[in-house]
Sequence to fold (771 residues):
Amino acid sequence: MSNPHVALVSLTRKIRPAELAQTSAALQKQVLRDLGPLWGLTAAVDAFPDLKSVPLGHWPIVIADNIKSPGLSGFHADKHNQPYSMVQYDETWQLTCSHELCEMLVDPYGNRLSAAGSPDPKQGKVNFLVEVCDPCEDAFFGYSINGILVSDFYTPHYFDPMPVASVRYSYTGAITKPLEVLKNGYLSWLDPVTKRWFQQNCFGGNSKIGPVKGMKTNGSSLRSQMDRIMKNPHNRQSFAMAAQKHRPIQAKTFKAGVARAAEWKTEIARHLKGAKTKLLVWFFLVGLVLPQMVRGQDGTGLRFLTQGELNKILQSQFSNLVTSNKNPNEISTNASLDPTDATFSLKASFPARFRKQKDYRDTTQVKNDKSKFRYIGISVSGSLLDKSYATLFTKGALNSGVNVQGQYTFRLGNKKFAMDAAEMGTIGLQRELVFAAYRKKVRSTDLAYRDSSYLEDRTILERQVTSARVRLAAAKDSSALLERTMDSLGHPAADKPDVIDKWIASRKGIATQQSALDKAQESLDSLEFARKEAWAEMRNDKDNNWGDQQRKDYDSVLTKATLLKVREMWGTLTGGVGKKNFYTFVPTQPFADQINSDGLATFNFGVAFNYLRIDNLYHRTLFFSSTISYLKDNNLASMSTTEVDQTKKIVNAGGDTTRMITTKYNVYTGAVASYLATNWTSQFYYLFGKQSMGIHCSPAITFENNGLTLTNATLGFIMSFKTSDKTQPILNTEFYFTGVDLFDQENASGGLWKRSQVGISFTVPVDLFMN
Fold:
């Protein structure tokens, strides 16, 4: 028979081509180095992008999502009796592929039997179904190749008649004697006498032997039938724990691969000369090496970062986004001030579910992380004067106003990001340290799940129970034999005192053995009860003070992580209320009524679309925001104030002292009116360089209900002052020009320049909700 060829094919988008190729290489090494020499076989394992690319003669192993048909996952044979396997995608799909590959190569057609003595003492020699991975299929007994978890398998000596100390019964040595079934494994055989199938399984650590129902004598192969029938309820939990165990190994292996790729790049560049050749080499390295160093992921395939971790990193990125107080829709926390017109703004953004970061205790929780990209923003803005430069430093009463705004942010589609693989590995390792801290807390109870001392104690007690049962059964058999002897003699009991003494001794022996059995069983039950109580107490521990330092380090790594590329789209629901206070001046009124204080209420609500694109490799940032809102406002923004001095003469009661008091006011001399309107405002930022500087453009059009259409526009230049490592801004400065009512719809006097404003604003990012 020629060497078989196995094709590894993925039908799910959750597996990247590079990951499939790495798995293929690991399985090839397992066949050539481990399986082949022990079983006397060889095979070629290759990865293919789809089924159409698989050449004729290859045996496919197909990985797919949501295999819902009962028995579809596992070994099969097509209508031409050629083998293939189906694998359900999950965290340890690579382990399952290894399991199916080993069994497919040792028994390609699923009908191979091997004769040996039955584990059931009631049976003699039987025919065992050769499934080399099933007795040791638990993920706990797997091992790592190139950072990938593969399955253990038994050797041909597994069916030897008796154990020998120097013989290997499974590749890892986990199986220590012939026909041993490890935890969560099973072994199947056909009894030639009864022509029935039996099985010994050790699901949950309890070994039992029983018949197998549903096996047919003809039709599909024996192994495909067994795969269809067998369901191990403990596999999911065990596989999750194995993924947790091997995640740091994968991260370290991948980090080593990245370092080796850099060495290859240097070595290749040293030997190649000429600009054209170097350009080709650069494209080659970017095409092959860089995809291994930078992994782009989307929301459907997060395997290295959870959604919660990604949100935390993104929020840190948003806090470093250089914007100004002119834009209310960014996700950030900042304080800003515009000394030109004495306006201020305070804003805070935080996750919609404002609670502590989830403490991951095992890989299952990481996989099932359902964190959402939703944020709530609250901003307070106001002004101390409106359109009057000269009165900035006066001591008179100033025009003022305040506005409270709320935003609810939610992710739209088309989100993508890229991160350095080594940094991803660091995050994974920090998460593993949190896992380790939790496991240390588990072990400290001495009765926790999978604790070594607990397993040893349980094994000793189980052996004591089994031994007591055997001795009790022997005592009962001896007593029954004496009773039959007494009955067969047919003489009165008094004539045979020795027989009576033996019978009494046997009854006492039964009572003694029964007492020993009860005591051993009680000790075992007490151990199990104490273990469950301790585990429940630990799981419900409200203090949750384990691994504080590990979690702090974990959060620190997340907040300091850098996404090489970001593309995010989000929507924002906005709403706010405010009030503008001002003074009016009517010279035709009596002196006491010429200057009056007044106030107008405002409101707005609307929806915004936001698009952010960050490229930290080339230091480019593009941010676009477009808002449509319905509002109630007034025309104060397009009016100018006038300084008015009001002097009052105060005479005391005696009439002998007179005092003149002069007060300065910023007043509006025109008619102040409110209106309802529909507004469209757009914000556009383009920033470049490590220092982050760039342009800001913001057009706005307001359609008033009185028929007027006001057009405003802001053009600014932004420059950011950052920390010494150029990673986080500490002050954002914008020089801007704002044109109000560009087309003079309100027939204001003084021209565009008087209605416009040139100024400077300062924004300070605040890192509030990052930790």
Remarks:
- The longest helix spans residues 497-539.
